[in-house]
Amino acid sequence: MEVQDLVLEEEEEEEEDSDKEDQDLDKMFGAWLGELDKLTQSLDDGRPEQPPQQKAPLRQETNMANFSYRFSIYNINEALNQGENVDLDALMADLCSIEQELSTINTKPNSSGSMARLGLTDTKVQTCTCLCSMYMDEAARQTSSHSLSSHRRTGSVGTVSEHEVKLLSILRMTECYCFGLLCTISVAIPVYVQEEQAAKLKAENIRVALEKIKEAQVKKLVIRVHLSDESSKTMMVDERQTVRQVLDSLLEKSHCGYSPDWSLVETINELQMERIFEDHENLVENLLNWTRDSQNRLMFTERIEKYALFKNPQNYLLGRKETCEMAERNKEALLEECFGGSSVSVPEMEGVLWLKEDGKKSWKKRYFLLRASGIYYVPKGKAKASRDLVCFLQLDHVNVYHGQDYKSKYKAPTDYCMVLKHPQIQKKSQYIKYLCCDDVRTLQQWINSIRIAKYGKQLYINFQEAMRRTEAAYDWSSLSSSSIKSGSSSSSLPESQSNHSSQSDSGVSEMTSSGHTRSQSVVSSIFSDAWRRGTQGEV
Amino acid sequence: MAAWDLSVTVVDLGPDAPPVTLSVTSDLHVGGVILKLVEKTQIKRDWSDHALWWEQKQKWLLRTAWTLEKYEIHADARLLFIPQHKPLRLGLPNGITLRLLASFSSPVFQTVMGICRMLNIRHPEELSLLRPVEEKKKKKDKDSAEEIYDLTEVPLSSASRPCLYNGMPAHFADSPQMEAIYKMLSITQPPPAPEVIAKQYRPASVVDKAHINGRWLDSSRCLMQQGIQENDRVWLRFKYFAFYDIEPKYDVVRLAQLYEQARWAILLEDIDCTEEEMMLFGALQYHISKVSQSEPQLMSTSAAMDDLDSALQSLEVKLEGESSSASEMLVRTAGSPELNDYLKIFRPKRLTLKGYKQYWFKFQDTSISYFKSKEESIGEPIQQINLKGCEVAPDVNVTASKFLIRLLIPAPEGMNEVYLRCENEQQYAQWMAGCRLASKGKSLADNSFQSEIQSIRSFLAMQKTNAGSHGNAHAADESINTHSLVSPRYHKKYKAKQLTPRILDAYQNVAQLSLTDAVMRFLQIWQALPDFGLSYVVVRFKGSRKDEVLGIAPNRLIRIDLGVGDVVKTWRYNNMKQWNVNWDIRQVAIEFEGNINIAFSCVTADCKIVHEFIGGYIFMSTRSREKSDTLNEELFHKLTGGHEAL
């Protein structure tokens, strides 16, 4: 998926058939303006800004929508491929008008009254235009292969191509400028276009909005998130949002049951690999690594492997070869031991893995070891003493991905492959390292151990945070149904003779191994909390 | 009851004075004996620290209410009337020796508590005393010349926490001399000369490492009982590698000593690490020694000032976090700082025979752009490279005037390799600093730019002196021989000037850390080493015919096969049900969940030491539950005391 596709859309009277998606965007836009207000206020007050929760009043949105054009970043390729009803022609028209404006600006600056108003955001308009045109380039290329839905405003394909030509000329004009600005200027900016006779008051509102944006300087992206049922959602994220925050708002919108397993997954089609974004990561930062013509997708889906590490830590932290069960209290103690201290101990992962040789389709066996400082291998003819190890790579600059179907793609020995690469690399490169494991268990152990080595305690904090939200999402109403069951399960707890700390402020250990019997886990954690309080009293 | 004569030697009367003879009855209590004794000596002084020591039985008669009969003391008993606190020469982890008064009558555990109280080290349970490794005869002469810092004048106090004055315990604030001692305790030592490292004993094998653990003193018995005499030398070391609640604000001495112990463990290869890790440790040591020279007043600020400082600091962080984007914007609009110069560029990946080509370079924000010449720099650049997220590596040889910046720039197609060649040190330091900041997404306007330049230059200076003659190492005080930062193995492997770029490489990631952060980072990396926290003991497992090594870690026991040198089995304390020591046959038996039983006898250390290690770690893990500062001495004793505790 291409996140950064910018689309200019015209509003309202032209679009009686505006689909649900557009309404979503409307809401989003309104909410976003509301946010801006809050944002600037908070900036003025100098207080830290809370991520806005409530939406702005609907009336305001429609007002805005009536006269304003709207920029949004939106996955046009995707939409086209899916055959969704996208207002490409409307887009063209808008672009055209912008082009006209640009030419007016270029030829006779500050001449008309409308221009004076525009003057304030002079550069912004340009920027937006070039951004927009850049993305439109993509869209335009697609149009030739895609039959346009005939729309009443722009009827023929010929018109479109005409626009396209103009568009491309703008593109050329501004492209290099645009590259420089891409990273620095707010990506989504509503632009006031003096095309129709709009009321001056309203125009002033926009001007204020623009100023606020300028103050806030917060990058916003409109992204398309794919769901497992092949549908997709469009939403706006700002550059400060963590994956956790985006997940939360997605969960709130989609009304799917809350589970810590919900994940945002980046899939890089070209390289056949995917990665679950960690909750603390910055989403926008990651998405900006994608290229313009990227086929990458952002998936919103439940993945048990996201936090499997914490649900069954014994299978990941003890360096054992076989899966096994563990009493909940021991799991908790194990996690606390591993993550609770001042430093995190990286699981002792070592063993033979297959390494894909650079530029070849052959795979070579090597004995690899994971240390906190990176991945090492044992050189030929040496023992595995620390001092003789050769550093394969350090983890600061790479992420670990899950390679898919590499048996056929790269003639891998098995399909259990992991990939290590710099997040910015998007195409085949010698800087991408491919490793292949003998079985899925080894693969999962390696991936999770690398995550621990890379993120350390943050990973555990993420999990605890996710669990807290899970608990918050289930109220006491679920208590009656499952209290008996969990009561009996927790009765074994007081037998504990462990001398180890059982402190944990979330229901970590009570997560059942399946991870899906949620209400029970919540209740039992409430019980265990109470029990813990009881025992603490004893001590 | 019949009276009989009891003779007591009063050491304070002089070595040649005959024992004082008292006429006592068996129902006289010890307090009464002391009273009689003091009356008889007719010396007026404070006797309150004195007590009776029974030489044959090697025990103190500390219960003054007990009668002689209860103590089973008869006329043949040789009793000594001696002070309970005597001077002890204490070797610290940083290699410095203190002379201080320590309790010779209480269990070593309490003695250590007293010492730590005096030195302002929190969590004394993590430390213990051990007999030093015998020094060779040759060094003995030197030893007498060794400077010993005297703390014997410090009054003994029983307060659990010393009251602080100027951020240090009051007794250190008395005089400039005392203040200097405290400074030495709380500031890390400069890197040792390579010869000093080379001279030190280095364990060559896991068995060698096991031997040191036979030297730990028994924490449930007193120093006198373990043959430690007045003015003897013992080492104070962190014994349990479970450091609880490190708080840089309160733990100045603790952190400094912990760092020293870790540093020596690495320099002497007491713990194994990879070459990359060694370079990072080296870089951190260099940085720590440099920063501690420039900000030595770390600990002498008062507690109130500390609070203020930390408050200000957190405020700063907050402001930084909130306004970063805004301030960036300001800078951008107000004309950001730039670097402009002629540099040479080379792209090793391109298949050209062309070497370095000169262009006019412009560094702005996080990007480098270059032009054909200065005159054309108003127009379009030939190329613009954004350095955000790139890897920067130095390739410098000062003597050969080689100042190369190697850039590995990520792009969707892979990494692009670009070399920038600078003319001189000055230029290199600026552009290198810019590249480093840009790789972290910071612009030249960032306030760390100047300090980054400084750290690069000081490192270059180090290379310069290394390249020069070895004799004038003291010429520039900034310079450190890089051999001082790594273990002797690397002295052989690399020359000092070969080592410099490698350490420099690692250094760039830590150059901006504060002193405390650098020390903490050092400790974190140390703690993340796979072998961290393992104390080895050579044991003989029941039913086995060969010696094996038992590794005792904070959370587990491991069994190491000496033949393979590999861990063959791991047992975790979590699964431990009970452990017993059969004191008659001196065998440790441990039962784990799932009917796993192991038993072994100890070869290189007494089984009490092993018992104490295991019990000690169990004790350490219970600490978090209480969250209070009071030490549960009784529990420690229960877990580690063995038959003494019964």
Protein model, in words:
Chain B: Pfam families: FERM_M, Kindlin_2_N, PH. Chain B: Keywords: Cell adhesion. Chain B: Belongs to the kindlin family. Chain B: GO terms for molecular function: integrin binding. Chain B: This is PH domain-containing protein. The complex is a heterodimer of chains A (539) and B (646). Chain A is α+β, with helices and mostly antiparallel strands and 539 residues long. Chain A has a domain at 309-462: Roll (PH-domain like). Chain A has 18 helices and 14 strands. Chain A has helices at 20-45, 58-67, 76-82, 88-107, 113-119, 122-143, 157-182, 200-216, 243-254, 283-287, 308-311, 314-317, 328-339, 406-410, 440-455, 457-473, 479-490, 518-538, and strands spanning 6-9, 70-73, 220-227, 232-238, 262-268, 273-276, 297-302, 350-356, 363-371, 374-377, 390-393, 399-403, 417-421, 433-436. Chain A has a twelve-stranded mixed β-sheet. Chain A has a two-stranded antiparallel sheet with strand order 1-2. In chain A, a hairpin with a 4-residue loop joins strand 5 (262-268) and strand 6 (273-276). Mean pLDDT of chain A is 65; it is low at 1-22, 42-91, 105-194 and 479-539. Chain B is elongated and about 115 Å long. Chain B has 16 helices and 26 strands. A seven-stranded antiparallel β-sheet of chain B has the order 16-15-14-13-19-18-17. Chain B has a seven-stranded antiparallel β-sheet with strand order 23-22-21-20-26-25-24. Chain B is an alpha+beta fold. In chain B, helix 10 packs across helix 11. Helix content of chain B is 34%, strand content 24%. Chain B has four domains: 4-83, Phosphatidylinositol 3-kinase Catalytic Subunit, Chain A, domain 1 (Ubiquitin-like (UB roll), Roll); 87-134 and 145-271, Ubiquitin-like (UB roll) (Roll); 338-444, PH-domain like; 535-641, PH-domain like (Roll), CATH 2.30.29.30. The two termini of chain B are 34 Å apart. The longest helix of chain B has 31 residues, at 303-333.
